[in-house]
Amino acid sequence: MTATKDTPVGAPLPENRVHAANLGQRSDRDFEMNIHDDKTASKLGFKRGFVPGGQTMSWITRVVVDFFGESAFRTGKLQCTYVAPVFDDDDVLVTGAVRERIPEGDGVRLVCDIWMDKADGQRAIAGTVSAVVH
User: Fold this and answer.
1) Which of 16, 25, 115, 132 pairs as cysteine with 107 (C-beta 3.0–4.6 A)?
2) How many CB atoms lie within 10 A of CB 129?
3) 67: part of which helix (H) or strand (E)?
4) What does each C-alpha distance from 19 to 6, 28, 75, 130 come to in angstroms?
5) Please, what are the domains in the chain?
6) What would you report as the CA-atom Rg of the chain, rounded to the nearest whole angstrom?
């Protein structure tokens, strides 16, 4: 579903299902204190290296652009909080829902909750995204 001026509160955002592959893993170099490396992450008490934030944000951005289209780039606002790490081989689902409609200019700013959940139900990222649609 692409957002329009008539999109109602409660409307769902598109879904993006991803099987995480940690592109941050590097075996050819020694990255001291790099949380994306399994060896370093395990020294810090984690089960394995984190998938980099830029990578997880790209999965969220896909949903935002699929929903808002060009408006995401012209009028979009995005705020996210990392709640739990995403690890290599985690399955995640990014989605959200329209929370509020605010008249703005000749359009409507749709304010949406957006989140990324892991397959076990744990929330990894929670945030808010909005853009003006016509």
Assistant:
1) 132
2) 24
3) helix 53-68
4) 33, 24, 30, 26
5) 16-133 (3.10.129.10)
6) 17
Q: What is the distance, to the nearest Å, from the Cα of residue 86 to the centroid of all Cα atoms in its chain? A: 11
- Secondary structure of the chain: what % helix, strand, coil (to 5)? 20, 35, 45
The Cα–Cα gap between 31 and 35 comes to 9
Count Cβ neighbours within 10 Å for each residue of 71-97 and write b for 16 or more, e otherwise: bbeebbebebebebbbbbebebbbbbe
Task: Dump pLDDT digits (tens) for 71-123.
Answer: 999 999 999 999 999 998 899 999 999 999 999 999 999 999 999 999 999 99
Which of 91, 70, 66 shows the shortest CA–CA distance to 13? 66
